[in-house]
Design goal:
- By secondary structure, the protein is an all-alpha fold.
- Helices cover 74% and strands 0% of the residues.
- α3 packs across α10, α6 runs parallel beside α10 and α8 runs antiparallel to α10.
- It has a single domain, classed as Glycerol uptake facilitator protein (Up-down Bundle), CATH 1.20.1080.
Amino acid sequence: MSPVKQYAGEFFGTLWIVLCGCGTALLAAQNPQAGVGAIGICLAFGTAVAIAAYAVRSYDGSYFNPAIALGFLISGRMTAARALGHALSQVAGSLAGAGLLLWIASGKPGFNLAIQGLEANGYADHSPGGYSLQAAFLSEFLLSAALIAIALSSTSKRAFAELAPLVIGLTLTVLHLVSLQIDNTSVNPARSTGPALLMGGWALQQLWLFWVGPLSGSLIAALVYRWTESKEQPAVQTAQAQITEPAIERKRKVVL
């Protein structure tokens, strides 16, 4: 797939995730009659990622997440230029998705952006459960590290690539179940950026954490993954040699 098509896929995929995930939280979960609740929000984010990845065939992309793009870069699977292109496309898609969501939400009389927001991520006074900055950072760091480790493993050569979107989507669902009440769950800087840019104020002031936390977790997870892969490589080569050597010996005997 050409870089332009990949960037377009990352743009539309991120747009879809923000529209579906944040839209479920804003338009459905806040309406008690809809019966969506927290579990519905978690499923919306996870399934949106899986659907988007299958729709744009992003099996070798960064799954609409700059933290995953960084993990792929550090692990040697993506060039710096391509990772940057993915990240910029994802941020643009998030902004477009948040803009569409704002447009839709504004269609209801009485909607107030300053009060109802766009499901931006936040900590302290803006945490759904009142969690501190330290708690939010630790949550984003640990859960992002777990997400990137699973993304790297599920897209490796030893894995079945077409199952990766489903695995990553289910992982994201679980991570939202853990941290939705902490900070509305980011683990994706692009997802956080679009709503924060449109809301401004506190959301924009707190946005830094939802870049630093996920990218820090991605950095550590990718370095650990790269180290473990380099440790396992000789063993894999030895096992392959043990399998192929008898076959080579048999061919020699046939020739003789």
